[in-house]
Amino acid sequence: MAKTPEFVKYAASIVPSERQIKWQETEFYAFIHYGINTYTDSEWGNGNEDPELFYPEKLDCRQWAKLCKLAGMKGLILTAKHHDGFCLWPSAYTDYSVRSSKWKDGNGDVVAECAEACREFGLKFGVYLSPWDRHEETYGTGDAYNKYFKNQLRELLTAYGELFCVWFDGACGEGANGKKQVYDWEGYYKLIRELQPNATINISGPDVRWCGNEAGICRKSEWSVVPYYHSNAELIASASQQNVSKPPKKINPTDLDLGSRKAIKKCNKLIWYPAEVDVSIRKGWFYHASEDYSVKPLSKLMDIYYNSVGANACFLLNIPPMPDGKINDKDVETLLSMGAQLEIDFNENLAEGSIITDNKHLDEEHCGQMALSSDPEEYWHSGDDPDGAELILDLGDEYDIDKIVLGEHIRTGQQIEKFSLYAQLDGKWKRIAKETVIGYKRICRFKEIRVRYFKLVIEKARCFATISKFEAY
Q1: Residue 453 sits in which domain range?
Q2: Can you say how many angstroms the Cα of residue 34 is from the centroid of all Cα atoms in its chain?
Q3: Of 323, 345, 367, which closes a domain?
Q4: Is 256 helix (H, G, I), strand (E, B) or coil?
Q5: Are 26 and 308 in contact (CB under 8 A)?
Q6: Cβ count within 10 A of residue 359
C-alpha cells in the first residue's frame, strides 16, 4: 500500500459544517428575480426609477411557492433588493421601497408574503441582497454605507422567520470612474452568523461558491474541498500575509480544476466550499415579454439537473414573475413538466431492501450493507486501504434500470477520486460508467439495461472511501 502524502491526508480531513450539509440536502431550489426592473424591461436598473412604477396588481406568492413545490424544489430565494436599490420590503432606512409605491397604498411587503407562502408549502426561504446600490447616496462613502447595508440586512434577518440562505453577488458596474465602496464583508458575515446561524452565505461568502458559469454545467470533477483563496478575495488578502500559502496572482472561478491533488498540493489552507449552479429558465434574469418564446425546454432543464445535482452541486433555477406578480403560463407549464419528470425518473428506488456485499470494510458496523441504510449515520467504510475496494449490489431479480445514484458520507470528508461502475450482463461484468468524484451525490446515467447485479469499484481514494447512498432507478 503506497504511503498517502501529508497534503492529501489534510485534504481528506476537511469536513462540511452542519449548515453546509443542510444546504447540500436542499439540492434544487428557485431564484425569484423580481423588482423595479420587471416594470422597466431591464436587467440592471440605474437607481432613479420612479417607485410608483411598482404595481403588482395580481401578486401571488402562493402561486410561486406552490409551483416550486410541484417542480420538485425544496427552497426559494427572493431578490429583496437588486442593484437599483429598490426594496421589496418597507425598509425603515430608505423611502426607495414598496412603501413609496401605490401597491396596497404603500402598505405592502413582498418579502413577508413570499416568506409566508414558502412556510405554507414547506419550502425553505432565503434572500438576495445586492451590496451594490445605485440609489443610496451613501454608497461609495465607506462606513456610512456599510452601516446602512447592515441595517437593511438586520431587517431581513429578524423579521421574516428562519432563512436557509443569504445570497450575495459581487456585481458592480461602476467602472473605473465610478464610486468605489469597500464592503465590510466580515461585518456582514458576523451579523448573519449571529442572527441566522443556520443560513449559508452564498457566492460572495464563505459557505457556497459559484460553479463558474451560468450555463448550468459542473466540472467533470466538482470538488467540495478547495484552496481557501477561492472564497472571498477581499477577505483572504489579509490572511495571505500570515502563515498560509499566498494565493496565485490570478484566481479564476472558471478554472476546470479546483480540487485535484495537483490543484491543492501547494496550498496549506483548504476549505469546504461546495458549488452552486445558477441558471435562468429564460435568457434574462428578470421578466421580459419578448422572451416568452425562449423558455428553456424540459429536456434542457433535465440535463442541467443531472449535470448539477447529479454532479455534486446544487441547482438554483431562476423563475422571473411578470409585472402583474404572477409567473407566466409558459414557465408554469415547463416547471410542472419538470416536476412530473423527476417523479418518473426517481419513482422507486429498486435497490431498497436489496443486498450489498464488499471485499473490504472497516468493521461490521461499516460493511457494504450499510450503504443501503436510510440512516445518515450508517454507511460503508473501506478501512484505510480504499483502492480496489468493491461493492456488489444484488437486486434479487432483474429490473430495467438506467440510473445509479451514489453518495459519500460527506460528514467524514470527500475522499473518492476515481471509480467505475459495472453491470453483470450475460454473466460478464460490463463497465457502464467511469467517473472521478462522487461527493454528496453522483447520478450515473446510461442506456436502459435489464440487470440484477451492479459492481462499484473504488479505483482511487484519499485516505479511505465511504458510500452512504447506493440507489437504482
Answers
A1: 355-472
A2: 20
A3: 345
A4: coil
A5: no
A6: 12
